[in-house]
Specification:
By secondary structure, the chain is an alpha/beta fold. The protein folds into two domains: 5-127, Rossmann fold, CATH 3.40.50; 128-281 and 304-332, 2-Layer Sandwich (Dihydrodipicolinate Reductase, domain 2), CATH 3.30.360. 34% of the residues lie in helices and 27% in strands. It has ten helices and 15 strands. It has a nine-stranded mixed β-sheet. The chain has a six-stranded parallel β-sheet with strand order 3-2-1-4-5-6, with helices on both faces. α1 (14-24) packs across α9 and α4 (84-90) packs parallel to α5 (105-118). InterPro entries: Gfo/Idh/MocA-like_OxRdtase_N (IPR000683), Gfo/Idh/MocA_Oxidoreductase (IPR052515), GFO_IDH_MocA-like_dom (IPR055170), NAD(P)-bd_dom_sf (IPR036291). Residues 5-126 form the Gfo/Idh/MocA-like oxidoreductase N-terminal domain. This is Gfo/Idh/MocA family oxidoreductase. One of its GO terms (molecular function) is nucleotide binding. Residues 134-256 form the GFO/IDH/MocA-like oxidoreductase domain.
Length: 334
């Protein structure tokens, strides 16, 4: 018999709504409780996005105290983390945490420790890992088909003022922390642990906006334990109201040009002549990450993106920003 999963959601903005939609589509999953900034918001969210059957709360402590939950989704901005993950883990709840999991590695390490000590499952919302083309390349790297990984070349660009909290570095961490971290995570997912990092950042096109304190341009170089390298750039000065992510991965037997997590041109170079094939299998990466998390809770699949990975990627972007403050000085990744 299918195990029933009771879920609580903390944070009822865009990501909270997205996860609620996908959770409601999964068999045997119940959104049992939701927690927002006010009872009014929580009750409205319940009515509109949770089927009208969830208990509404304005304090996560009360939700965890009064409800019996199998898992808690923490879908709040990075500045709002104040012990929600630790409290859920202490209650024995598995946790799904949106990225970045914190604004600094010290806070993130506290989350990881709480999850490990409680022995609960966890997942971070790095949805690009669940793209069909990304999964195909990961398989090829793991089984050796792609050969030796050598270079990851990634780019993220957009052009938007976003929300007021997003353009305040003290609240969001900046574009590298809040958006480009997805690309940094993919590089680590495919290439492993970094050893050295260098970064440059600047606010080149938004200086006249008084509350815009984040970078709008960044570039970083990363070396990995294997000797492989990555170059990752991000911009908030590109095409207005477009959010674009692209990356190329070069291995000794395959070069892959990604147009997104589900679409890529694979050029196999291990034979006498290059063989080109377009891989295009459309999946909803947000749905797929929820399917994977629920499967892990039921013991039907592995823990695919545990919270420790969220700490590792946070440490990487933290090093990028520290290097940028030192005008690109190469730093050791610890």
């Amino acid at each position: 018999m299918e195990k029933q999963i009771r879920v609580g959601i903390i944070g009822l903005g865009g990501m909270g709504r997205a996860h609620a939609k996908h959770l409601r589509s999964l068999s045997g999953v119940e959104i049992t409780a939701v927690c927002g900034q006010s009872m009014e918001k929580a009750e409205a969210f319940n009515a509109e996005h949770a089927g009208g059957t969830a208990a509404a709360y304005d304090r996560y402590e009360d939700m965890l105290e009064q409800e019996t939950l199998d898992a808690v989704y923490v879908c709040i901005p990075p500045y709002a983390h104040r012990g929600q993950v630790e409290a859920a883990a202490k209650r024995g709840c598995a946790v799904f945490v949106e990225k970045p999991i914190a604004l600094d590695s010290e806070t993130a390490a506290s989350m990881v420790l709480a999850v490990e000590q409680a022995g609960v499952l966890s997942q971070v919302g790095y949805h690009n890992r669940f793209g069909s083309a990304v999964r195909e390349l990961k398989r090829m790297i793991d089984d050796g088909t792609a050969g030796v990984p050598t270079l990851f070349d990634g780019r993220y660009d957009c052009n938007s003022l976003h929300s007021p909290w997003w353009r305040d570095r003290s609240l969001s961490g900046g574009q590298v922390f809040e958006q480009a971290i997805h690309t940094y995570d993919l590089a680590m997912h495919l290439f492993g642990t970094p050893t050295r990092v260098s970064g440059l950042t600047g606010n080149l096109a938004h200086r006249e906006i008084s509350d815009y304190t984040v970078e709008d341009t960044s570039a970083a170089i990363v070396r990995f334990e294997s000797g492989a390298m990555a170059s990752i750039c991000a911009s908030n000065c590109a095409v207005p109201m477009e959010w674009n992510s692209s990356f190329t991965v070069v291995c000794s037997k395959a070069t892959v040009y990604f147009m997104g997590p589900n679409k890529a041109e694979f050029v196999l170079t291990g034979g006498a002549e290059p063989v080109r094939r377009l891989f295009e299998e459309e999946v909803d990466v947000y749905l797929e990450e929820n399917i994977a998390f629920i499967a892990a809770l039921r013991g039907e699949g592995p823990e695919l993106c545990p919270i420790g990975d969220g700490l590792a990627s946070l440490r990487l972007v933290e090093k990028v920003m520290q290097s940028a403050e030192l005008d690109g000085t190469m730093l050791q990744f610890e």
